[in-house]
Amino acid sequence: MGCYSLDVRNLLCPMPVIRTQNRIVELNAGDILEVRCTDPGALQDIPAWCRINGHEVLRNDIENGEVVVIVRVGSAESAR
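The structure corresponding to this sequence follows.
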């Protein structure tokens, strides 16, 4: 299991979700991805995408004015 980060600060919807999706496809089931962004819509958008695609949101909040979403990648089938 690996831990990775994704910086999508200063990008607006839908780019944080698209970049998150593109990065998760490169990861393995069980890997952890920390996403940092400044688009407040990502607080709802990334977790909604994760629910639909079988990934687990471990953390979803605002830290120092940035949205932080930590995701555990689901099965290989859901990551593709």
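The radius of gyration is 11 Å.
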